[in-house]
Amino acid sequence: MEIRSLTRAEAEIMRILWQLEKAFIKDILVQMSEPKPAYTTVSTFIRILEKKEIVAHNTYGNTHEYYPLISEEEYRRHEVQQLMENYFDNSVGNLVSFFVKENNMKDKDLDELMTFIANNKGK
Fold this sequence. Notes:
The chain is mainly α and 123 residues long. The protein has helices spanning 8-20, 25-31, 39-51, 72-87, 92-102, 107-119, and strands at residues 55-60, 63-68. Helix 2 crosses helix 3 (39-51).
Protein backbone atom coordinates (compact mmCIF):
# COMPACT_ATOMS: atom_id res chain seq x y z
CA MET A 1 0.00 0.00 0.00
CA GLU A 2 1.32 3.41 -0.95
CA ILE A 3 1.11 5.94 1.85
CA ARG A 4 0.23 9.46 0.78
CA SER A 5 1.23 12.58 2.68
CA LEU A 6 -1.35 14.31 4.84
CA THR A 7 -2.41 17.93 4.94
CA ARG A 8 -2.20 19.74 8.27
CA ALA A 9 -5.93 19.21 8.94
CA GLU A 10 -5.76 15.52 7.99
CA ALA A 11 -2.73 15.08 10.25
CA GLU A 12 -4.58 16.65 13.19
CA ILE A 13 -7.45 14.19 12.72
CA MET A 14 -5.03 11.27 12.39
CA ARG A 15 -3.19 12.21 15.59
CA ILE A 16 -6.54 12.07 17.38
CA LEU A 17 -7.46 8.73 15.78
CA TRP A 18 -4.06 7.25 16.65
CA GLN A 19 -4.57 8.34 20.24
CA LEU A 20 -8.18 7.13 20.52
CA GLU A 21 -7.71 4.07 18.23
CA LYS A 22 -11.41 4.18 17.26
CA ALA A 23 -13.74 7.17 17.25
CA PHE A 24 -16.95 8.66 15.98
CA ILE A 25 -16.78 12.14 14.41
CA LYS A 26 -18.21 13.68 17.60
CA ASP A 27 -15.34 12.08 19.58
CA ILE A 28 -12.80 13.56 17.17
CA LEU A 29 -14.40 17.00 17.44
CA VAL A 30 -14.16 16.95 21.24
CA GLN A 31 -10.38 16.42 20.99
CA MET A 32 -9.79 19.15 18.37
CA SER A 33 -8.36 22.51 19.31
CA GLU A 34 -10.30 25.76 19.16
CA PRO A 35 -11.72 27.08 16.97
CA LYS A 36 -13.33 23.72 16.28
CA PRO A 37 -14.30 23.02 12.68
CA ALA A 38 -17.86 22.15 11.72
CA TYR A 39 -18.99 18.52 12.02
CA THR A 40 -19.39 18.38 8.23
CA THR A 41 -15.82 19.61 7.73
CA VAL A 42 -14.41 16.81 9.88
CA SER A 43 -16.66 14.35 8.05
CA THR A 44 -15.29 15.55 4.70
CA PHE A 45 -11.69 15.14 5.87
CA ILE A 46 -12.48 11.65 7.18
CA ARG A 47 -13.86 10.68 3.76
CA ILE A 48 -10.66 11.99 2.14
CA LEU A 49 -8.60 9.91 4.58
CA GLU A 50 -10.69 6.86 3.63
CA LYS A 51 -10.00 7.51 -0.07
CA LYS A 52 -6.29 7.71 0.78
CA GLU A 53 -6.76 4.31 2.49
CA ILE A 54 -5.44 5.59 5.79
CA VAL A 55 -8.77 5.32 7.64
CA ALA A 56 -11.65 2.82 7.53
CA HIS A 57 -14.92 2.54 9.41
CA ASN A 58 -17.41 0.22 11.05
CA THR A 59 -21.08 1.00 10.46
CA TYR A 60 -23.62 0.97 13.27
CA GLY A 61 -27.01 1.88 11.81
CA ASN A 62 -26.63 5.41 10.45
CA THR A 63 -23.36 6.18 12.21
CA HIS A 64 -19.74 5.28 11.53
CA GLU A 65 -16.89 4.51 13.89
CA TYR A 66 -13.53 5.33 12.28
CA TYR A 67 -10.16 3.71 12.88
CA PRO A 68 -6.67 4.10 11.38
CA LEU A 69 -5.39 1.56 8.84
CA ILE A 70 -1.76 2.52 9.43
CA SER A 71 0.10 3.18 12.64
CA GLU A 72 1.57 6.52 13.59
CA GLU A 73 5.01 4.87 13.39
CA GLU A 74 4.38 3.70 9.81
CA TYR A 75 3.32 7.21 8.80
CA ARG A 76 6.29 8.79 10.56
CA ARG A 77 8.62 6.39 8.73
CA HIS A 78 7.01 7.35 5.41
CA GLU A 79 7.35 11.07 6.05
CA VAL A 80 10.99 10.83 7.11
CA GLN A 81 11.74 8.75 4.01
CA GLN A 82 10.06 11.39 1.84
CA LEU A 83 12.06 14.12 3.57
CA MET A 84 15.29 12.19 3.02
CA GLU A 85 14.51 11.51 -0.66
CA ASN A 86 13.30 15.01 -1.49
CA TYR A 87 15.80 17.16 0.40
CA PHE A 88 18.81 15.15 1.57
CA ASP A 89 19.73 12.84 -1.35
CA ASN A 90 18.76 9.80 0.77
CA SER A 91 21.72 10.53 3.04
CA VAL A 92 21.36 10.20 6.80
CA GLY A 93 24.62 12.12 7.10
CA ASN A 94 23.17 15.06 5.16
CA LEU A 95 20.04 14.99 7.32
CA VAL A 96 21.92 14.89 10.62
CA SER A 97 24.44 17.54 9.57
CA PHE A 98 21.56 19.82 8.55
CA PHE A 99 19.95 19.51 11.99
CA VAL A 100 23.27 19.96 13.76
CA LYS A 101 24.04 23.14 11.79
CA GLU A 102 20.55 24.64 11.64
CA ASN A 103 19.48 23.95 15.20
CA ASN A 104 22.69 25.01 16.94
CA MET A 105 22.75 21.74 18.87
CA LYS A 106 24.24 21.94 22.32
CA ASP A 107 27.07 19.64 23.45
CA LYS A 108 24.55 17.71 25.57
CA ASP A 109 22.36 17.07 22.49
CA LEU A 110 25.35 15.95 20.44
CA ASP A 111 26.46 13.63 23.27
CA GLU A 112 22.96 12.11 23.39
CA LEU A 113 23.01 11.63 19.61
CA MET A 114 26.43 9.97 19.71
CA THR A 115 25.33 7.69 22.57
CA PHE A 116 22.21 6.72 20.63
CA ILE A 117 24.25 5.94 17.52
CA ALA A 118 26.75 3.87 19.52
CA ASN A 119 24.00 1.89 21.24
CA ASN A 120 22.09 1.22 18.02
CA LYS A 121 24.89 0.36 15.59
CA GLY A 122 24.02 -2.60 13.43
CA LYS A 123 20.41 -2.84 14.59
